Structure formats: structure tokens, C-alpha cells
Amino acid sequence: MNNPCDAPDPRGQPAGTNPRSTEDRRAIGNGYTAALVTASDGILVTGGAGFVGATLVRRLVTSGYRVRVLDNLSTGDAAHLADVDAELVKGDIRDAAVLDDTIEGLGVIIHLAAAGSVIGSVQDPGTNFEVNVLGTFRVLDAARRAGVGRVVLASTGGALIGDATPPVNEGSLPKPISPYGASKLAGEGYAHAFAKTYGVRTVAIRFGNVYGPWCARKRGVLNVFFESIHSGVPLIIYGDGSASRDYVHVDDISNALQLALEKDVPGGTVLHAASGVETTVRDLADLCRRAAGVPDHPIEYRPKRAGEVDRNFASYDLANQMLGYAPSVAREIGIPRTWKWFQAEVFRD
Ligand SMILES: NC(=O)c1ccc[n+]([C@@H]2O[C@H](COP(=O)([O-])OP(=O)(O)OC[C@H]3O[C@@H](n4cnc5c(N)ncnc54)[C@H](O)[C@@H]3O)[C@@H](O)[C@H]2O)c1
Fold first, then answer.
1. Which of 65, 178, 294, 349 is the most exposed, having the fewest neighbouring CB atoms within 10 Å of its CB?
2. How far is the centre of ligand 1, averaged over its atoms, from the C-alpha of 61 (Å)?
């Protein structure tokens, strides 16, 4: 799944004859290669009203892109994009006709829409499959029909690879241990197949655990910790606190997604975008308590939950080589900054 490919044109023409192909886009001379995608290309961002979308869409609009968001607002919120110059279409990625209409006139797709919870996928694997596997298939198939030049997909590192000795990288063998991880692996499989078969220029970015502004509607551990601190209740740690994750700031993930859009990497590419730093849940609890100025806030331990990996962090070396990606927000800066955002935007009362 990691191998780049030489693929034919999405609509059955040989590579190079697609009007949106790389060859048509770049001007070669004196070593200059234009970006694969430029600001004049309109972008469809599925799931753009969610947590990652709120930062990504702002970034793309600021960079001069015309952005249309397709979101069913199941976990997202129109308010996330209230002051942003982007079009919001309410609709479902499982609906092929909605996708055909929404892609109209746009050249590229960033596909974020998903049922994004590991625990939710354990409780309801059927819905997770429909949104993440069927939904991703529908997005890719619509991209193929429309001859879209680039599809960047949000994937995941930890949940997809499962329990492996970290740091994981693109060569690690995926062995998901939750329906969510399996659904993301299936999405990557279709992305690679559509690159090989139809020439859809896909890039899957495997995120670490993302945190930052606009994550308040998520049930991620960082915002659950912040809410517990704010409400004066103990932080709950499932397991003994040694489970680890790779916490990456949403600004860095948005940068990785924009780079994946603009850099001319081959279709079918898969890359990890992470912090490269291992943080245990216990460390995270300490970072959150310090950020909030309550270093002795109580912690309670409960039994480990099914479907969650023990240790995870990822190497971003390949993303660095292929995209020039490197994280820029250290957790010691990003976590206190996120606490301030929660105080200003969520804990206002
Ligand atoms: N946040 C993380 O730590 C993390 C880690 C790894 C991967 N990811 C992936 O990144 C992407 C974005 O995640 P997020 O954290 O912003 O989650 P999110 O839940 O905030 O955003 C997902 C968005 O997709 C929308 N959506 C869900 N189902 C839809 C459907 N059927 N049709 C249209 N829209 C739909 C939701 O309303 C929401 O706005 C997801 O693909 C997720 O799996 C996130």
C-alpha cells in the first residue's frame, strides 16, 4: 500500500492525457516545478465542519483557495466555520448523487468525513463501516467520475497498525485491533486501488492523535481531561497510565494536509504525519494539570478498554522526505495554548 504507482487516467485514457494531469499543470524549466494544485483550483473538504476541518479550512481559505465543505453535521458544527469564507453544503458522503453535485466545478478533494471514534466503532461497527468504508469508496468513486486531480485522505497511525513496537512507520504491518482501525485500512486500500486502476492521485495521511482548538465536541482524552479539571472531578485513566500516544497539534496536521495537496507525490502514497514523540496517558495528565495550573488535581484509575492500543508513536521521516513535513508545535507549547482556547471558547460561563 505504500508503493507509488504509475497509473492510467481516471476515465480510461492513458496517463498524461487527462486534462488535469500533472504534466498539464507544471511548467518545467530551470528546475522549476509548479505546485500540483494551485489556489485557482477549488477544493472540496468532506467533513470540513469538524475539529480538524475548522483549522484546515481556515488555512486553505487564507492561502487563497476556494473551499466547499460537504458535511452532514453529525459530529461537526456549522458554527466551526461561522466566520470563514467557505461554502458549506449539508449532505452525506454515502450519497453518490450528493457527491457528484458537490464536486461540480472543483479540482481536488480533502476527505476528512468519518465516524472517528474507536470506542464508537466497538459499540456500532456497522455504522462505522458504512461511513468510513462505503463513504470513502463513494468519495473515491465520485473523484474518478469527475476526473479530480488529487484526493487527500485522512487516515490514522495507531488504530490502523494496532499493537506494534513503536515508532511505527509506513513499513509497519497493519494489524488493526478495532473496527475503526480496520475501516481506515480499507479506505487506504481503496485509495491505492483507485490510484493504480483509474489514476486517481490519492495520498493518505496517517494522523497521530490530533489536539488543538475546536476539539471540544470530540471525546478525545485531552478535552475529557480539560473538562474534568474545569468541573473539579478526578481525571479518569483507563489502564495503569503507561499507554502512550503521539499527540500532534492540529496546525501541524493541517500543514501536512496542505503539503499533501500541493506536492507532486505519486498516487497511492501513504505517509505518517505525527509528532514523533511518545506521551503516556500519565504524562498527558501531568501536562494538562500543569497547563491548567492545578498540578495536584486528582487522578482515578479504571480497567483498560477494549479496542485501544497500548503504545503508539510514529516516525514522520518519509513525510519529511516527500512533503517537507515537520511538526512545529511542541506539546509543552500546544497543550497550554489549547487550555487557553478552552477557557476562552468553551469554559466561558
Ligand atoms: N482527531 C484525531 O485525533 C484523528 C486521528 C486520526 C485520524 N483522524 C481522522 O481525521 C478526520 C477528521 O477527524 P476529526 O477529528 O476532525 O473528527 P470530527 O468528528 O470532528 O470530524 C468529522 C466530520 O465529518 C462529518 N461527517 C461524519 N460522517 C459524515 C457523513 N456520513 N457524511 C458527511 N459528513 C460526515 C462530521 O459531521 C464531522 O464534521 C477523520 O477522518 C478521522 O478519522 C482524526
1. 349
2. 19
